[in-house]
Design brief:
Layout: H1 3-13, E1 17-21, E2 27-30, H2 32-38, H3 44-47, H4 59-70, E3 82-88, E4 91-99, E5 108-114, H5 116-151, H6 158-189, E6 198-200, H7 202-219, E7 223-228, E8 235-237, H8 239-255, E9 262-270, E10 273-280, H9 302-307, H10 314-324, E11 328-334, E12 338-346, H11 349-353
Parallel strand pairs: 7-9
Antiparallel strand pairs: 1-2, 1-5, 3-4, 4-5, 6-8, 9-10, 10-12, 11-12
Helix pairs in contact: 5-6, 6-10, 7-8, 8-10
């Protein structure tokens, strides 16, 4: 294979867009990545001879490319590279512009690196830091304020001291819960939490989790009704992680169900999967919020969630655990009509075959 063929293959297959322009700004060559990104219905022959603005509308990029094309051999900086970043159709690109010797047919080479995912990760990190800071700031301010009040003399008032210490304890517990949830979420997302695949009795597991939270529900006047279908076989999953999913879903349902409400927990088999449903008579979720309900720190009612002691991470933990188990989780809800959180686990091979 000749050197030119090798270079052609590299350019064609690399995951960076490459396009060559002549002195008039017309396309001479474009590789597969560029064509699929900016002219997906076209071939190289289709776009040859066309100007870059026919594929990319960004005015900043068009101006920089135009300035390079207008540059003469005596122009200072004509032999220098330039970089520009632009976003189009919700995708972000880092573009490197390389001028070439005017003796050649090609005047400019442009290299496009897709940085959409990098930008998304940066945004997620910024939001995460901002959210954690916000969630910690409120309880910290409360702890500091009441501690200072106690040190200023309120500790000598037994009744006030007890009230203030109770508030400090409540906020310290909230911070501890948040930090614990952050650690769990971090381990699950980074796949550092070991998953043990074993055959488990899902019915017995769900029954035990419901029994464990009955007192919490009873204290709020909420009835829990358990409905387990006959003959539900074993499932392949990590028992500890499924228990964590159930605790989070049940605790969430109890928190957001008004006093005197009801929870229905169903275990059944549908289409070769074991399904667990947690149905509540709570406040419900607006349709616009459902696509984001499993995001970290996303709350439908922020003030109410904090008042109830929620960290905003429970459902995110549920989602990532379920994904790690190669399973499914979803929610159905209507405002004022309650919500149904469901997840599906695969049956054992023998059970699925029956």
């Amino acid at each position: 294979m000749s050197t030119s063929n090798i270079l052609e293959t590299i350019a064609r297959e690399m995951l960076t867009g490459a396009v060559a322009l002549d002195s008039a700004g017309r396309v001479i060559y474009a590789n597969k990545f560029f064509i699929s990104s900016f002219a997906p219905e076209s071939t190289l022959d289709d776009i040859k001879g066309k100007g870059l603005p026919e594929f990319i509308a960004d005015p900043g990029l068009r101006k920089v490319v135009g300035d390079f094309l207008d540059c003469t051999a005596e122009c200072v900086g004509c032999d220098e590279h330039a970089k520009i970043e632009f976003t189009e159709d919700e995708r972000s690109f880092d573009v490197r512009i390389v001028p070439l010797d005017e003796e050649h047919e090609t005047s400019l080479m442009l290299f496009f690196k897709d940085i959409t995912e990098e930008k998304m990760v940066e945004a997620i990190k910024r939001d995460f830091v901002a959210n954690v800071s916000h969630e910690l700031r409120t309880p910290l301010a409360s702890i500091k304020g009441y501690s200072e009040t106690l040190l200023d003399g309120a500790i000598n008032n037994k009744e006030s001291a007890r009230e203030f210490l109770s508030i400090i304890d409540k906020n310290a517990t909230r911070m501890s819960r948040l930090i614990e949830d952050l650690l769990v979420l971090s381990r699950v997302e980074s796949q550092q939490m070991q998953m043990v695949s074993e055959v488990i009795d899902l019915c017995e597991l769900v029954r035990a989790m419901v029994d464990g939270l009955k007192k919490q529900a009873r204290d709020k006047g909420i009835e829990i009704v358990l409905d387990i279908e006959d003959g539900v076989p074993g499932v392949v999953a990590d028992k500890g992680r499924v228990e964590q999913v159930m605790i989070n879903l049940l605790d969430n349902a109890i928190k957001y169900t008004p006093e005197g409400g009801r929870l229905d927990v169903l275990v059944c088999v549908k289409a070769g999967e074991a399904i667990v449903e947690v149905r509540d008579t709570g406040i419900g979720i607006p349709a616009s919020d459902i696509p984001r309900i499993f995001e970290r720190f996303y709350r439908v009612d922020k003030a109410r969630s904090r008042e109830l002691g929620g960290t905003g991470l429970g459902l995110a933990i549920v989602k990532h655990i379920i994904q790690s188990l190669s399973a499914r989780v979803w929610v159905e809800s209507e405002p004022g009509e309650g919500s149904v959180f469901s997840f599906a686990l695969r049956l054992t091979d023998m059970a699925a075959a029956e």
